[in-house]
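Protein of interest.
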Amino acid sequence: MSSTLLGNLHIWSVMLFVIIYLIKTVLLFANESMLDKFTKITKVPEMIVSTVFLVTGIWLFVILGGIKTMQIIKLVMVFTAIPMAVIGFKKRKKGLAVLSFLLVVGSYGIAEVSKKKPFIKANVTMQGDNSTGLANGEKVYFENCAFCHGIDGKKAYRGASDLSMTGYDEIMIQEMVKIGRKGKMPGYDGTLSAEEIANVALYVAGMKNNPTPKVVE
């Protein structure tokens, strides 16, 4: 299954998950008998939505092979919210139910904010002479960019550009690396030095003709 399709499934399941929790939380305060009826009717759909939500999220992380600091916080919030909600709704603990809902909504907000943040840098060792700008650019690429673009630039994770087909020159690539692409790619200005950005742009611009990468690990 493509990462784009998985991403869309994940987004829709998250939205349904939040809606279900919102309705249950409102009913807990407004009409507990209606909450019982709603819970009974939505028990199976809620299980399906929850499963899709968790499985697609984990699957995306596996495909990506990387994670951001804020995504770690998001996971902690989600896995805290779910058992808290089960207890809150079952035992009619309104405080727990509200806190659980706020954690779910907060985790969604953090996921949106994290789109603008870089991934945790990978530990990469390169073979051969790494003193040139091109070699340094290759190293920077595998540490920061290969998560979404892949070793050969063709991974296209959730719509990431195929860098093996790029028509951008070095200057354009530098600007893209600095400022990112809204909703798709975080900006690395402040994360990478000007020299690193220039070097990785040099590497990406010549990716069509690059030999087999020198990555060891």
About this structure: The radius of gyration is 22 Å. The mean pLDDT is 89.
